[in-house]
């Protein structure tokens, strides 16, 4: 890894350059990307669970009267 300011080659990766003292980015991008992926994954999981619950709620509402109708029809016959 090279210092972006003075171009000094650094063997040990530190928060600052040993040669000129310039502050270096310390994998902040990787951490934020992980956090983003974690949040994105959580959103997907929550959305899937919500869709699952909504679908079951809707099908329960739609199927029950249908079953009642078929039962009534079969009794009438
Ligand atoms: Zn430097």
Report on the architecture of this protein.
There is one protein chain. By secondary structure, the protein is an all-alpha fold. The chain is built from one helix and no strands. 0% of the residues are buried. The structure holds zinc ion (ZN). Zinc ion binds at residues 3, 5-6, 8, 17, 19-20, 22. Zinc ion (ZN) binds next to loops.
Give the termini separation: 84 Å
* Shape, principal axes of CA atoms: rod-shaped
Low-confidence stretches: none
The class by helix and strand makeup works out as mainly alpha
How would a crystallographer describe the biggest sheet? none
Order of helices and strands: H
Percent range for β-strand residues: under 5%
List each distinct ligand once: zinc ion
Task: Provide a count of the helices.
Answer: 1
Overall pLDDT level: 79
Features:
77 residues; mainly alpha; 1 helix; 0% strand; rod-shaped; binds zinc ion
Task: Reconstruct the topology from this structure.
Blueprint: H1 28-76
Bound molecules: zinc ion.
Zinc ion (ZN) binds at residues 3, 5-6, 8, 17, 19-20, 22.
Structure in a nutshell:
Helices cover 64% and strands 0% of the residues.
